[in-house]
Write a structure and sequence with these properties.
348 residues; alpha/beta; Rossmann fold; 2 domains; six-stranded parallel beta sheet; 40% helix
């Protein structure tokens, strides 16, 4: 992308898919219709507006640009570009963390000229005022599939199964073990229910995954609860569209975008009361909420949906409508672009 067309840079200094990467991939194309914005960093789609990392120290100093970081490493790089290479950057940071920050992170945050948080709860952990801008999803991409049976055939899932999904890294933080415990209790008496899990298994979680897989194999459920690994970005939407119910059993979470993605595809959600989930899910209408770490409550909530297929059908339309009304990505994009413009105006 021509630097002369760039007003905002959205860095992504992580190659593997993460929540931050997914946010940038979804948000930048929408923002690009409103302001000159480019992403930078590895692991991004080729069609995303982009500027190579190596070009950043030589950006023309003819104008101010906004550097919108979402990780510590990206705040550091923004400071290096501004203070060492003397690039004209206005620094902005979005925080989703709901925890007390370490001293280095607090110092980095103090260097920023604009702060955004993704939920009111996250704002409470910052030492400075911040604008709350909740995430949205692209409802033109995350959309219900009219021919779900055909899509299931194409992917290889049984057409008549009640299909549950849980997407995210395979680790204790995400509560995957709680979902497996629920599966061990519920699936033996419900032969039509299957579960798919997607997400990377890091080396430090190989033993965690192996234990879960062994428990499922011992119960004869290995073919009905499948770990698909990390899927290409283009495949994730198709997998959402095949589901009857999405499960988000995290023990803690920064924001948590997957319930919104599922609901945008017309899939109700059972989630824990962490991150922004309580702000995203309408209890009993678009899904259910349970206490984090409570396998009993999670099991009963899932039971309440899979034993009532009519309830799932009613919730499909409500889930989609809720996202359209309250969590479309255009709303998030517009709010962030307004902050960018304010920073640029003040710089000029």
């Amino acid at each position: 992308m021509n630097p002369a067309e760039i007003d905002v840079i959205a860095p992504n200094l992580k190659r593997r898919l993460s929540g931050v990467t997914a946010t940038i991939v979804r948000l930048v194309p929408v923002q690009a219709r409103m302001i000159g914005i480019a992403a930078t960093g590895p692991g991004l789609p080729a069609d995303l507006p982009h500027i190579a990392l190596w070009r950043l120290p030589w950006l023309p100093r003819d104008r101010w640009r906004v550097w919108h970081a979402r990780r510590n490493t990206e705040m550091v790089l923004g400071l290096v570009l501004r203070r060492v290479f003397r690039r004209k950057l206005r620094l902005m940071f979005t925080s989703a963390a709901q925890r007390h920050h370490r001293s280095f992170t607090r110092w980095l945050i103090r260097q920023q000229e604009a702060l955004v948080t993704t939920s009111p709860a996250a704002a409470g952990y910052l030492e400075r005022p911040a604008r709350v801008v909740m995430h949205g999803v692209d409802t033109a991409v995350f959309t219900p599939e009219p021919d779900r049976a055909g899509l299931r055939r194409a992917i290889g899932w049984p057409e008549d199964a009640v299909l549950l999904g849980c997407f995210g890294r395979i680790r204790a933080q995400k509560g995957v073990d709680l979902l497996i415990e629920a599966a061990l209790r519920l699936l033996p008496a419900r032969p039509n229910v299957q579960i798919i899990l997607t997400g990377r298994i890091t080396p430090d979680n190989h033993a965690f995954h192996a234990d879960l897989a062994a428990r499922l194999a011992a119960a004869g459920l290995a073919e009905r609860v499948r770990f698909l690994g990390e899927l290409p970005w283009s495949d994730l939407v198709r997998h959402y569209q095949t589901l009857d119910l999405f499960i988000a059993p995290a023990r803690w979470e920064g924001f948590g975008l997957t319930p919104l993605e599922a609901m945008a595809c017309g899939v109700p959600v059972v989630a824990t009361r962490v991150g922004a989930f309580e702000s995203l899910i309408v209890e009993g209408v678009t899904g259910s909420l349970v206490a984090p770490g409570d396998a009993d409550a999670l099991t009963e909530a899932i039971r309440g949906w899979i034993d009532a297929p009519d309830r799932i059908m009613r919730a499909r339309e409500a889930a989609r409508a809720h996202v359209l009304n309250a969590h479309a990505i255009a709303t998030e994009a517009e709010a962030l672009v307004a902050i960018y413009r304010s920073l640029l105006e003040r710089a000029q």
